[in-house]
UniProtKB/TrEMBL annotation, chains A, B:
Limits of the Phosphoribosyltransferase domain: 106-246
This protein's name: Purine operon repressor
A GO molecular function held by the record: DNA binding
Family label: Belongs to the purine/pyrimidine phosphoribosyltransferase family. PurR subfamily.
């Protein structure tokens, strides 16, 4: 196979298999090329991925070695994307009765969801995450967005047990803002003891839901390695029960009377 | 930019932008290359995409023309993937009380979900689908899988209205197998009149839920252009209220007493 053909094939293969260790012999067998040619191809792909903010190729040497595509956006790209999201959410027609924001269209756009996933995955790529957890319903697309880049399973917490989940563990928790007692249910076979878990959700007010997921994960003796939320509300900061998290957006102010919303960058770029 | 560099950049760009018309000048500006060079690059990418079952590049000529990446798997690939899924589901430890199957791990695997999406998208690529609809919870990942290849939004039907959905349209429907009356709710601003919609769900027994979505879509005067389900149950066929659908799998027999499950290919390859 010619270099030009190989580059197309290897680029698509690597993009489809993020975080997966691919041995050089695998590539040289697949494309009928010497290992030295494959190494040169990989160097080109690595350089272009870095240049375009797609990520980079990590080389692991030794007999069990190979190459891993690590998704990694650059700050220019992330910053531009977040700015764009802020603008999109500041559209006054999003204001719903009670000062809530309509966001389902944003969460329904697969390209947006993929980009949100890309940003969180970039941030969490070196934490050795084993799985992504979220609570039904709105967090699910975002969780898959992150999972598709980290190449780990998604686990969905539910509000009520379903027969198709098999035996479950359930907890009661107090929601942060409304102080109501709520329930969360997780299938028993979904998480193994000692797993490194990343919590993803669309929106955080006081953080009660995320805190509930943390308590549930304690029952499974799993480690919460990272928390990512698309948007956080500003006004609840003093009561917040969760402190270590990464947010892309902060909804600073929803002024329903004057039809104005202020959305700014979250803490993604802090530190 | 050199051809080798361009091929990597253009391959990743096209994979990230399926079904999107990209003008040749866009590429020649972006990569500082003559249109003739870009055309040669695209010919290489087209050939490799076809060869690997990734899809193909559709050229649209004229002033408003350009190139579109159409995801399209080949039958060898699809067949191998479906066989693998059948095997995975025949694992007897999946049997739950009542003869239900535990499938959350399969639906939680982002690579599996992406492949399922790829298969349905291949089948529905020329139907000019405007959006994908599904009902919370389990169909959501699959709907995003399909949507990410067709590059259209996902719309989620809920069982109860949520304040964050704004005003909604709700219908009551009779579930196919249990004959119980159930409710479905859809945000009013989610679908426009005349839209071409594709229904995606994880599992179909008698088809009551899918029929419910069809009735709901009638309220919006939307056209149901395609229905895709991951798995259908065999034993309900005579009572089935939905007839035009594509299924990847058919669960033929769950023998809880002897710990045996039989899963075969669905109607995906028929016609």
């Amino acid at each position: 196979m010619k270099r030009s053909d190989r580059l197309v094939a290897m680029t698509s293969f690597l993009i489809e298999h993020p975080m997966e260790l691919i041995s050089l012999p695998h590539f040289s067998d697949k494309y009928g090329a010497a290992k030295s040619s494959i190494s040169e191809d990989l160097a080109i792909i690595h350089r272009m991925f870095e240049q375009n903010g797609t990520g980079y190729l990590q080389s692991i040497s030794g007999a069990a070695g190979g190459v891993k595509f690590i998704p990694q956006t650059n700050d220019t790209y992330s910053s531009k994307f977040i700015d764009h999201l802020c603008k999109e959410l500041e559209d006054p027609s999003r204001i719903l009765p009670g000062g809530y924001l309509f966001m389902s269209d944003v969460l329904g756009n697969p390209a947006t969801v993929r980009n949100i996933g890309r940003l969180f995955a970039s941030k969490f790529a070196d934490l050795e995450i084993d799985s992504i957890i979220t609570v039904a319903t709105k967090g699910i697309p975002l969780a898959y967005g992150v999972a598709s880049f980290l190449n780990v399973p998604v686990i969905i917490v539910r509000r009520d047990p379903k027969v198709t989940e098999g035996s479950t563990v359930s907890i009661n928790y107090v929601s942060g803002s409304s102080k109501k007692i709520q329930t969360m249910v997780l299938s028993k076979r979904s998480i193994k003891e000692g797993e490194n878990v990343c919590i993803i959700d669309d929106f955080m007010k006081a953080g009660g839901t995320i805190n509930g997921m943390k308590s549930l994960l304690e029952e499974f003796q799993a480690n919460v390695k990272a928390i990512g939320v698309l948007a956080e509300a500003e006004d609840e900061e003093e009561d917040r029960v969760v402190d270590q998290y990464v947010s892309l957006l902060q909804i600073k102010n929803v002024d329903a009377a004057n039809g104005k919303i202020e959305v700014v960058k979250g803490n993604y770029f802090n530190d």
